[in-house]
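Protocol step 6 of 9: fold each sequence in the batch and record its structure tokens directly after the sequence line. For illustration, a two-sequence batch is reproduced in full.

Sequence one:
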Amino acid sequence: MRKEAAIRQSDILDVLSSSEAPMTAYQILAELQKDEPDIAPPTIYRALTALTYQGRAHKLETLKAFVPCRCEHDNSVPLLTICDGCGSVEEHDGGPLLPKLDALIASSEFIPDGYTIELHGQCRVCAQ
């Protein structure tokens, strides 16, 4: 069973990596069902949950969609810029922001499980 789950995660990462835009779970499901029609939505959601937990994919909360992780984020902050024009997503290392974020929340005694920052706007091409 573990082998099957690993294959599913790998297949999902392949689908995400081949897409130019973020994909919803149902878009990923539709793509995978072309070769394996018996795949069910819970399989996709479980695999996406595992991939985001492992740091191999990012969930774009504002879009309810996913992109593959393209950077190393150990002790860092993924900063994702999302173009509202074409839908492209770029990933940046927001590591220099980590001390400032920690300082901002220190007084509230809140303990974050992790950080992801999403910025919406226009990419260079769409802004022209």
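Sequence two, same batch, same settings:
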Amino acid sequence: MIADAESDRILGMHILGAHAADLIHEPALAMQVGATASQIARLIHVHPTLAEDVLEAMEDLNEAAIHQLKKTGKG
């Protein structure tokens, strides 16, 4: 996920894998309407689905992701 550091607007996203075509529509729409990562993260993402990966990526831009290892800066 790529977002502008100051405005939080979505600038782009890379998705690789078998279900990439199922996931790219949400960030593409976000870019089209000028949405921010925070706005997309507030949308409902059904559990359990692959769409939660998009939510997690949006949250990670604002250091709010909870389903990943935290970066400690050590080693």
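Proceed to step 7 once all outputs are recorded. Observation for sequence two: The chain has a mean pLDDT of 84.
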